[in-house]
Amino acid sequence: MLEAIFLGIVQGLTEFLPISSSAHVRVFGEFLPSGSDPGATFTAIMQIGTEIAVLIYFRGDLVRILKAVLRFVLRKPIETGSPEEQSARLGGLILLGSIPIFVLGYLGQSYIRENFRSLWLISFTLIFFGIALGLIDHYGKRLRNLDDLNRRDGVIYGLAQSLALVPGVSRSGATIAMGRFLGYKREAALRYSFLLAIPAVLGSGSYELLNSFSEPTNNFSGLETAAATLVAFIVGYIVIAWLMKFVQTRSFMPFVIYRIFLGILIIVLLQTGLISA
Fold first, then answer.
1. Is residue 11 a contact partner of residue 50, using CB atoms and an 8 Å limit?
2. Which of 4, 117, 209, 212 is the most buried (most CB within 10 A)?
3. Please, are residues 97 and 155 in contact by the beta-carbon 8 Å criterion?
């Protein structure tokens, strides 16, 4: 139970920062008394907790989006250029941007489970995508808001999010970097990153949760997993509130430095035999 709660704290602290929560859960699992990979199932179910934090924090945005999408589906008139039209369009772009990760995640789930959990791969992705985030954030333009989002950008955002199927990439890191590359402001890129993750994370977590009943592959009991998910929700909500304020005045450079340091540390630990890949 203590291990599960600890991993819930790790999940909540790292899910929304561009440093890869799945990588941290995987790495910290090596240092727990059990000394094993917590597993993709446990990780995905825990992410439901952090995503519920997103639903609550952005509840105002989500209610507006759902109302506008419902009006569009029911073919009720929506004034052109109105905030309601923008909300309906944003809802459609979130669904459009979610298609790549749903397709790739479903088709490649077995291969991902068997080949993408190596700490060698995680160390490389931490370093490589950390450097990419730093460069793009530093040199990227700061011109566009979410009102400027279009279908092309929505698909590109979605393709970037699908890179997070590889532990170490970071869902938020990949989508934020792509947003900055496309010229969106930090806060706009971060906000859309949060909203875009909702269908993917809830879908993946629910799928793993249902499968865990028929094919138990979770290293933790149901009660332990529930405790970890609850802790991840509480910690995650606090992190969202802090991060939304942080990006208004600061760059992502501290996270870039941390990613590179962690990646190098993992390589050193692997080379010395202190942890197993």
1. yes
2. 4
3. yes
Its domain, for residue 188, covers: 2-118+129-257
For 78-121, write each residue's pLDDT tens digit. Answer: 777 788 888 989 999 999 999 999 999 888 877 887 788 788 99
Contact 90, 65 (CB under 8 A): yes
Cβ within 8 Å of residue 110, ≥6 positions away: none
From the CB of residue 248, how many other CB atoms can be counted at a distance below 10 Å?
11
d(Cα 86, Cα 130) in Å, to the nearest integer? 32
For 192, residues 6+ apart whose C-beta sits below 8 A from its C-beta are 146, 149, 157, 175, 179, 184
Joined together, the tokens standing for residue 186 give 């930090």
Instruction: Quote the tokens at residue 227.
Output: 């405790």
Cα torsion through 89, 45, 51, 24, rounded to 10: -110
pLDDT digits (tens, 9 = 90+) for 215-237: 655 678 889 999 999 999 999 99
Position 50 in a domain: yes
- State the amino acid at position 24 in one-letter form: H
- Alpha carbon of 137 to those of 37, 105, 185, 254, 258: distances in Å? 32, 27, 10, 12, 15
Whether 87 and 64 have beta carbons less than 8 Å apart is answered as yes
Residue 268 lies in a domain: no
Tokens of 258: 């941390």
Question: Is 64 contained in some domain?
Answer: yes
